[in-house]
Amino acid sequence: MTRTISILGATGSIGASALDLIRRERGKWRVVALTANGNAEQLAKLAREFDAEIAVVAHEDALPALREGLSGTAIETAGGAAALVEVASRPVDITIAAIVGCAGLAPTMAAIEQGKTVALANKEALVSAGDVMTAAVVRTGATLLPVDSEHNAIFQCLQGGKIEDVRWITLTASGGPFREWSQDQLEAATPKQAVAHPNWDMGAKISVDSATMMNKGLEFIEAHHLFPVGLDRLRIIVHPQSIIHSMVEYRDGSTLAQLGPSDMRVPIASTLAWPARMDTPCAPLDLASIGNLSFQATDEQRFPATRLAREAAEAGGAAPAVLNAANEIAVAAFLDGQIKFTQISAIVARMLESALPPAPASLDEVLGVDEAARRQTRELLVSA
Questions:
Q1: pLDDT at residue 381 tops 90
Q2: Domains of the chain with CATH codes
Q3: What Å distances lie between residue 47 and 74, 101, 296, CA to CA?
């Protein structure tokens, strides 16, 4: 049976991986919508290849180029934030929500409102608006499937188990490119060094988050919303090989771990085929050649981001949204050469120490908290 799909963020790494899988089983899918931030040329190419019904760019100034790229076709085109929300509202069997940043919040919520399946790859959705979005999932009866390799691993390890039987959920972290660096080395780290992740091929922002360990902190908050076992039953461990993607320990002492290659097509395939399985082109694990799997405790002296995220989750309310917004602005400043690597977490810490706004009760209020936190963080950067 042919299934319908929309991919929000089709030209990014998640979108590209998802389309690679769909390309291999083309007859099983009908692509309804593809969106991109501003890469009109690539979006037009993909829309033609997959015969999408509509292609949307977030930046309206890229719309003329998109229309030109799709001239002579029957593919509908649109541009702007409102168009992203509208296209996400179109009913499909599954929506992959992979728009980076808070720009993805409103489209993700629009997809959830359809009450269908949403494969979530947008961290900000649950970090900044976790309470609001999980309430919408319950209200609409939507199915939320995690795309992040760690959360997808947990999801798989929980199949056949009961959440009340869970003793621990353990998120694994590669430790990033600076895992063995001294404090002095971290002070001098460059953007080029920070984006050179040893295991994963990711964008600049998420690569820096991995280097600071904030990526794992954000995933800690996500896991809190996806798997309600309580914050005291969530923990992080460094696993440099990135072979075990996460683990679930049950009260009888059994620990289930999901292993796989460092390739996002594995967790994406899990969501596309759920509750069944599908083939991927990923090479099977060769554990004998890997040799050893090692683990280390997190070092929150050198990498305080995981502690900051845990404290934000414990505080609840607006704190996670402030954490996320401050981190995005600080990471951008580091990539632009405005601040040092170690100042990223320091700036986030200062924002969490400031007076926080009331807990947001709607998506509009979440976006208001986000905007205010970004503005305040930029003000901090002026004096940094």
A1: yes
A2: 3-146 (3.40.50.720), 149-305 (no CATH), 316-384 (1.10.1740.10)
A3: 11, 23, 44
